[in-house]
Amino acid sequence: MREIAVIGIGAGDPEQVTMQAVSALQRVDVFFVLDKGEVKQELVDLRSEILRRYAEDYRVVVGQDPERDRTTTAYVEAVDDWRRRRADVIAALIASELGEDQVGGFLVWGDPSLYDSTLAILDDILARGELAFEVEVIPGISSVSTLAARHRVGLNQVGRPIQITTGRRLAAGWPEGVDDVVVMLDAQTAFTEHLDQDADIYWGAYLGTPDEILISGPLREVAAEIEKVRAEARDRKGWIMDTYLLRRKRWEA
Ligand SMILES: C[S@@+](CC[C@H](N)C(=O)[O-])C[C@H]1O[C@@H](n2cnc3c(N)ncnc32)[C@H](O)[C@@H]1O
Question: Ligand 1 in contact with 7 (CB < 6 A)?
Answer without folding.
Answer: no
